[in-house]
Design goal:
By secondary structure, this protein is mainly β. It is built from one helix and nine strands.
């Protein structure tokens, strides 16, 4: 299933939105996404900067790997990816500060960490 995943700050989890319907179909503590693209909507970021109030405008889009699919992959040494609308207008690698636009596999963990195979 093609989805968009974003951090839900109110529920302290990841919200999974079906790309075809635009509806949230799940709230997960951890999610693994294949063929991922990191998306930031510029208009949403501009609103955050103007209002100093967060809104959903950045997410990971890709194919949701469910169930046992995600246990096949080890993300122990995968680079961390982050997004901060006040710092950069894109997702970036925590270690190098370089822009990250896509990844073959991304794990959004229960602790809020995002790790990607770059």
């Amino acid at each position: 299933m093609r989805v968009e995943v974003y951090r839900n700050l109110h529920k302290n989890c990841w919200s999974v939105r079906d790309l075809s319907t635009g509806r949230v179909v799940a709230h997960q503590t951890a999610v693994t996404i294949a063929d991922a693209r990191f998306i930031v909507r510029p208009s949403g970021r501009a609103r955050v900067l103007a209002e100093k109030r967060k809104n959903v405008h950045a997410f990971v889009r890709g194919e949701w790997m469910r169930g046992n699919d995600m246990t096949l992959f080890n993300f122990d040494n995968a680079p961390r990816v982050s997004y901060n609308p006040y710092k950069y207008p894109y997702f970036y690698c925590v270690g190098t500060q370089e822009e990250v636009t896509s990844s073959s596999l991304v794990h959004l963990g229960h602790d809020g960490k995002v790790q990607a195979r770059l």
